[in-house]
Amino acid sequence: MAACEDSAERRIDVTYARWIRLLGMSGELDEDDFAQQAEELVGEIFSLDGMSSRILGGRWQDLDEGPRSQFTQALARSVRFTLVEYFEDSDEVPALRPAAEEMTVEGGLVEARYWLVKRDWSDWFTFRLADDGAGSCGIVDIRKGDRSLLGHLKGQVKELLEDYSFPYMIAELGHYGAVVLADFENDTEGELPKGWTWRGSDDHKNKPYRVKVEDGNRYLEATDEGESVILGHEIKWNLDEFPYISFRVRVHQIPEGGDERDNKKVDSAAGIYITYRKKFFGKIPESAKYVWSSTLPVGSAVRRAGIGRPWQIVFGSGEEGLGEWRTYVFDLRQAYTDTFGGTAPSKPIGVGVLSDANSLKLKAYADYDDIRALREAPPGVTSGVTEILSPIGDE
Questions:
Q1: Are residues 316 and 260 in contact, defined by beta-carbon separation less than 8 angstroms?
Q2: CA-based max dimension of the chain
Q3: What is the spatial distance between Cα 212 and Cα 218, in angstroms, rounded to a whole number?
Q4: CA nearest 204: which of 229, 225, 223?
Q5: Are β-strands 231-234 and 270-279 bridged in parallel, bridged antiparallel, or unpaired?
């Protein structure tokens, strides 16, 4: 704590001067440059690890390096937005003056009270600082009356995690435009991605999926030669806030003659599942499955008879584009309306992937990456459904 007791006042003064100087440059910098510099400054003057451990409690200790980094980056963005919002309507830069009383130490924190003063206005704040354990002192909270920046952030994170998954909380905390449903960047090369599961009936099967690395980028490789295993990842997000799905796919080999209408030929080189919900006591899924078909035209959709079977929507077809990474974006709310009908549930519960060639006893090779839910999408994005086809074949 000595580091904070000895340097807190100077650190606050220098920090404030740097922040005001950066705000003064905001008109000269483009939005991205300003945001980057502001978040770097936040990272220097706030103890983001200290704040993170206080916000997440014991959960912080359980996080791997990747999720920890994601959280601190989102936290820096959140603090940046809060600070900018406080100052953006001010027509005069307030002066920062320490209050008369001395700094105090309370509960392992150094507290310093300051006044922000303008000609006809003043407001006081209490800065709380803590030693980061490496001999440096950083801000872990700013209080104004009974309001606390740390308390606000802790409440926001707690509320989000009660209803949604960690990646959605990250997106909302950091004011991001996308929820990262899966990008495999924190997974181990040559292994199955962490947190992904399969149906119990597939326990005995080979799982034809592995995380691969290419030019520094991690992605999921699928090399199905008859296993037909759906790999699923439970993740909850708010579809009303992030209604679009984006994903990248690279198909290498299609099962020749595959036809999603036909039970005897129902193989697809690549498939992305979105599970909207499970009905009937959590047993029967309602899912849309975007597929790269061997034969059906792009935009066609079909649902074979049977309980819990997904609507299959064709986003790619045939051999055109084999070996190329391609990105696709679709409107998931509209996709539900165009297939199941009615209004989509607001909280999807998971995503999945399936490359399969078991029906035709062939091969289906494809790669998957960057599955994201988007807050906004480019103009003209649709559900991907242009025609409904009828299923064929015997049950």
A1: no
A2: 85
A3: 6
A4: 229
A5: unpaired
Rounded CA gap, 274 and 351, in Å?
5
**What dotted CATH number matches 178-388?**
2.60.120
Q: In the block, which residue shows the tokens 């609507």? A: 311
- Domain spans of the chain, in order of start: 2-173, 178-388
Measured distance CA(294)–CA(282) in Å, rounded: 33
Whether 63 contacts 55, CB under 8 Å: no
370 φ/ψ sector (left φ>0, alpha ψ -120 to 50, else beta): left
CATH class, range 2-173: alpha beta
Q: How far apart are CA 155 and CA 141, in angstroms?
A: 14
pTM: 0.93
Convert the pLDDT of each residue in 14-72 to its tens digit.
Answer: 888 888 889 888 889 999 999 999 999 999 889 999 999 999 999 999 999 999 999 99
Give the model confidence (pLDDT) of 291-326 as tens digits: 999 999 999 999 999 999 999 999 999 999 999 999
Positive or negative: CA dihedral 386, 388, 392, 395: positive
| Residues lower than pLDDT 70 in the chain | 1-3, 5-6, 88-92, 99-102, 107, 132-135, 281, 393-395
Residue 265 CB: number of other CB atoms within 10 A?
18
Strand spans (E) along the chain: 95-98, 104-106, 109-118, 121-131, 137-144, 147-148, 178-182, 196-197, 209-214, 217-224, 231-234, 244-253, 270-279, 284-293, 300-302, 311-317, 326-331, 350-353, 364-374, 387-388
* DSSP bridge pairs for 111: 104, 128
The closest of 340, 341, 332 to 384, measured between CA atoms, is 332
Query: Collapsing DSSP states into helix, strand and coil, what is residue 56?
Result: helix
